[in-house]
Amino acid sequence: MRRLAVLFAALLAMPAWARDPLVIIVNPESGVTRLTRQEVENIYMGRQRRLPSGLMALPVEEMFPAETRLRFYQTLVHLPMPEVRAYWARMYFSGQCQPPRQTETAEETLEVIAANKGAIGFLARSKVDRRVRVVLELEPSAEP
User: Cα(34)–Cα(123) distance, rounded to whole angstroms?
Assistant: First the structure.
């Protein structure tokens, strides 16, 4: 009984975001049913411009709350936001590719992805609805 109480207390002490994993979502008509972490990283860092189904990828990132975006990049590419911004500034000004499309809210992210077959985004699992398909759940990795 004591172990259960300790486990329950530890769970309550976790920040809410730690209990609500980030998921990668796509338009259900994209032809994509699953993605790997590497594929998502390549799409979000501009190294891969197409989804595995052949559609042009439209990566979307929710700007607010800021901790969702921060958590996404730290979990996926292990970079702090200043380094991500610097990376995208170099890529954009060199003409290599465009940074992800930015949205203000989870609802706007859902709307953009539902309206674009090639769109891909990330949200907290609790914000996902039937307009999109979950193709990967991001678990924090132990890698640096």
Answer: 16
